[in-house]
Amino acid sequence: MSAPTRVAILISGGGSNMLRLVDSMTGDHPARPVLVASNDPAAGGLARAAERGVPVAAVDHRPFGRDRAAFEAALLEPLLAARPDILCLAGFMRILTPEFTQRFAGRMLNIHPSLLPKYRGLHTHQRALDAGDDVAGCTVHEVTAELDDGPILGQARVAIRPEDDADSLAARVLVREHALYPACLRRFAAGDRARRDLP
Ligand code: GAR
């Protein structure tokens, strides 16, 4: 049997998507988690990953101020030591430099809480509500140097209800994220880069 594909995951917060990814990588899944790292030492997801036996690392971005390259150099130490084949961003809220994205070109994924190309960046749910959209959703895509851009691997759609606010919409989209991201990672780790949306 060939060695499993090694997956590292970057988080900034609670890491619910990260946990879904970690929990999906068992049995005949082609990949295994090798590291969960965060730019925030207080990120709740770190303890939850460690509880599952996944190695964790924290590299606080704050001492580096605006020096993104220096932060990334520090982040790369534990990351490269884990020898990941695939890097998953899962609620990682730092913008990465083109040098960093280039290093992982073709093997870095992100989940974004909108139907890209709509609403790159922040406050996606409020922006969908403000625009009067009747559907929202989430996207898993390959990461390129452009923010929230790159080939789409899958989307899941969520109907917007008249009574929705950003929080209620975010909660329903998150449920779909938890199904979409593991499905996309599994296919990607098996070498399938075709786009497949969830019904
Ligand atoms: C998720 O909704 C994810 O799509 C979003 O942050 C949340 C993280 O939740 N990511 C972004 O906005 C990236 N720009 P989680 O920590 O529970 O997975």
Description:
The structure is a single chain. 34% of the residues lie in helices and 22% in strands. The chain is of the alpha/beta class and 199 residues long. The protein has one domain (5-189): Formyl transferase, N-terminal domain (Rossmann fold, 3-Layer(aba) Sandwich). It has a 7-stranded mixed beta sheet, with helices on both faces. α4 (98-103) links the parallel β4 and β5 (108-112). α1 packs parallel to α6 (166-189) and α5 packs across α6. The structure holds glycinamide ribonucleotide. Residues 11, 13-18, 90-91, 111-113, 138, 174, 177 line the site of glycinamide ribonucleotide.
List the helices and strands and how they pair.
Elements: E1 5-11, H1 16-24, E2 31-38, H2 44-51, E3 56-58, H3 68-81, E4 86-89, H4 98-103, E5 108-112, H5 124-130, E6 135-142, E7 152-159, H6 166-189
Parallel strand pairs: 1-2, 1-4, 2-3, 4-5
Antiparallel strand pairs: 5-6, 6-7
Helix pairs in contact: 1-6, 5-6
Glycinamide ribonucleotide binds next to helix 1, strand 5 and helix 6.
Structural class: alpha/beta
Count of DSSP H/I helices: 6
> Mind telling me the CATH superfamily name?
Formyl transferase, N-terminal domain
Q: How much of the sequence is in beta strands?
A: 15-25%
Architecture (CATH level 2) name: 3-Layer(aba) Sandwich
Query: Main β-sheet: number of strands, strand sense, barrel status?
Result: 7 strands, mixed
Structure summary, number of beta strands: 7
- Summed over residues and divided by their number, the pLDDT gives a mean of 97
Classified by CATH, the class is Alpha Beta
Distance between the termini: 33 Å
N-to-C order of helices and strands = EHEHEHEHEHEEH
CATH structural fold name: Rossmann fold
| Structural Rg | 16 Å
How many domain modules?
A: 1
Instruction: Name the overall outline.
Output: globular
> Strands across the major sheet, in which order?
3-2-1-4-5-6-7
Which range best describes the helical content: under 10%, 10-25%, 25-40%, 40-55%, 55-70% or over 70%?
A: 25-40%
Cofactors, ions and other ligands in the entry: glycinamide ribonucleotide
Runs in which pLDDT lies below 50 for 5 or more consecutive residues are: none
